[in-house]
Design brief:
Jelly Rolls; disordered N terminus; 15 helices; alpha+beta; globular
Length: 621
């Protein structure tokens, strides 16, 4: 409970006195009993609330209402505070009381250039702090309403979609590499909310507001049905009653990295809101407010039912995992036919203790229970509520898994199970001499986009021709498979007809561009040798390019010559070097970078410049 006495009076008095001696600051009320207002409201929705105005507004509401408690719960990449707002009645509950009781969470503005969700969060928390509405007071007396007003303060200040690292946070809710998403995950894990509201915006105007429910196929069906009911039979009706049009958000899909889908995987109801940015500022914020208030109404009207469905969801997931009675989906959604389905799921996954230690953060942040087996084994049973997430984290077939656990199909006697060995260095090498000429080499697969790959003879080599359409292509080595942590890739390659890029070599590659837009992704670390004479280390994340480091090489780069190239990841270090074939290998790495964003993936050569021909005489891993 907050100390609300003399300190509160002095704090408010000093703030008001200070403001009275200087030019009025948006959001301050002359009367301490008057409700605070945002800069957005003060300027009649002509411009968004500034960062400084937001900080002052939060301070005011926190000081002026016993119902509200606000703390800094984390820090953005650039050091800005991320606040957690707790609202309850008659006073703000402690974190222990919230965790032991019921709550819902509203996350505003994951994407920095989508500010209406943050405006809604600020206004709604203020309204709840001072409301006399009997229904809202009754709801707040039974549950807590939590807000993370701007989940991405750096992006909001910079008016960018991504955070200060240039990362789309709403593609990070499984691997959780951004500090902002880690804050969200800690809140969700600690408080286990009944409902998660994820407030975004989209381009366009019509319909005015699009919405979506969690679509990942691993979530509980009854829970999804209740989320759909909340959106289609409650929120949509309330929004339309206010004169706006609504429709489903068409670009969702079942991607487990989206917060909207992670809501369902965490056994919570979920709603994604997407007003069109072609509408006025006022309308965009108004639609968010109508939708959020409608969710509160639904929560109040279905309070006991929501608990019943959520409790049942956790029980059904644990039972299905223990009985191996439900399939596991590695792609697809309730609207998109899955292509990777495990009809005979494991009852659990076995890890070596060293592997479990490396991913302990994920086990903790999802409250996944484990069991020690012998001296070196850690068993993760599927018979628990987070069955929804376990295979997405531990199965190599999952697109964004963090470890390669061994699937177990008989869990009757764990002591008899073989524990996977601690990883020893593995080596792979090919000159393509044993592969059939004129076709793709055996046990290699095209990723991202169809390419023109074939084995040639005299000398034996892998040929890659990028046709006139261009676009990123990659050939991954299935024998090597999905690799985590440290890996080194080497090759001998010649380039002809190249544009600005002579060659590309990838590691930790993942993603698929053959699916519909929302699921189309390209992720990897890769090096390229440029015709300008520079060697670069780059990162692809969600098809977004970032150059991590670049250095000039001590020789002239040109097409038609053979080059040896090495690309290595060790811990967070990325290193590369390249030299003309026949020359002595450089003793030092020519370019280095630090990054730890991509967790794992495949290795292989790639390219994207149209009408480029690459010939790989050797690849080693």
């Amino acid at each position: 409970m907050k100390n609300r006495g003399f300190n509160k009076f002095i704090s408010v008095f000093m703030i008001v006195l200070l403001v009275m001696t200087m030019t009025p600051f948006h959001g301050f009320a002359e009367d301490s009993n008057e409700r605070p207002t945002t800069g957005f409201e003060d300027r009649n929705a002509e411009s968004w609330t500034t960062f400084d105005e937001e900080q002052l507004f939060l301070q005011q509401v926190d000081e002026m209402s016993e119902r509200v408690r606000i703390t800094q719960t984390g820090t953005s990449h650039d050091g800005k505070p991320i606040h957690l707002v707790r609202v309850g009645y008659p006073e703000a509950p402690s974190d222990e009381e919230i965790a032991d009781g019921r709550n819902m969470v509203i996350v505003g503005t994951q994407h920095g250039r989508e500010p209406s969700g943050r405006e809604m969060s600020l206004q709604l928390m203020r309204d709840l702090a001072f409301t006399e509405d009997e229904q809202l007071i009754d709801l707040m007396s039974k549950t807590s309403i939590l807000f993370i007003p701007p989940a991405n303060p750096d992006g909001r200040v910079n008016n960018t979609r991504g955070n200060a690292q240039g990362i789309n946070m709403n593609r990070d809710h499984l691997n959780m590499k951004t500090p902002e998403v880690q804050v969200i995950a800690e809140v969700l894990n600690q408080f286990d909310p009944d409902i998660i509201v994820d407030a975004h915006e989209r381009s366009g105007t019509n319909p005015h507001l699009e919405m979506q429910w969690p679509q990942n196929l691993n979530m509980d069906e009854e829970l999804r049905d209740l989320s759909i009911e909340m959106i289609e039979e409650k929120v949509a009706d309330d929004v339309e009653d206010e004169g706006y049009t609504t429709g489903p958000y068409p670009l969702g899909g079942g991607d487990e990295r989206f917060l909207g889908n992670m809501a369902g995987l965490r056994n919570s109801l979920g709603i994604l809101t997407e007003p069109g940015m072609g509408n006025s500022y006022a309308d965009r914020a108004d639609m968010q407010m109508i939708a959020a208030n409608s969710v509160l109404d639904f929560y109040h009207e279905n309070f006991d039912r929501i608990k019943e469905v959520r409790d049942g969801s956790k029980e059904r997931q644990a039972t299905a995992g223990a009985n191996m009675s439900e399939p596991i989906y590695f792609d697809g959604s309730d609207e998109l036919e899955p292509t990777k389905v495990e009809e005979n799921p494991a009852c659990g996954y076995m890890l070596h203790t060293s592997h479990a230690e490396k991913i302990q953060y994920y086990l903790d942040i999802f409250s996944i229970e484990t069991e020690r087996v012998g001296d070196d084994g850690v068993f993760v049973s599927m018979g628990q509520p987070m069955r929804t997430v376990i295979p997405l984290l531990l199965d190599e077939r999952a697109g964004y898994s963090v470890a390669g656990g061994t699937p177990v199909h008989d869990c009757s006697n764990l002591e008899d199970l073989e524990v996977p060995p601690e990883s020893d260095p593995q080596q792979y090498s090919t000159t393509f001499a044993d592969d059939e000429a004129g076709s793709i080499p055996e046990d290699w697969s095209m990723m991202w986009k169809e390419g023109n790959w074939s084995v040639r003879e005299q000398p034996s080599r892998l040929e890659n021709y990028v046709d006139a359409s261009g676009g990123r292509r990659l050939l991954s080595w299935n024998d090597v498979g999905r690799k985590y942590d440290d890996v080194e890739v080497a090759g001998l390659v010649r380039s002809n007809g190249a544009g600005s890029t002579l060659l590309q070599l990838h590691l930790h590659a993942s993603g698929d561009t053959s699916r519909e837009y929302a699921l189309a992704t390209e992720n990897s670390y890769y090096i390229d040798l440029r015709s300008s004479g520079s060697l670069r280390i780059n990162r692809l994340f969600d098809s977004s390019f970032s150059n991590l480091a670049s250095a000039s090489v001590p020789f002239d780069t040109e097409g038609g010559k053979w080059y040896q190239v090495v690309f290595q990841r060790e811990g967070t270090a990325l290193r590369a070097k390249v030299w003309p074939y026949g020359d002595e290998e450089p003793n030092e790495w020519q370019v280095t970078a630090e990054d730890n964003f991509l967790v794992g993936g495949h290795v292989g050569p790639g390219h994207f410049d149209a009408e480029t021909l690459n010939e790989w005489a050797h690849i080693g891993v």
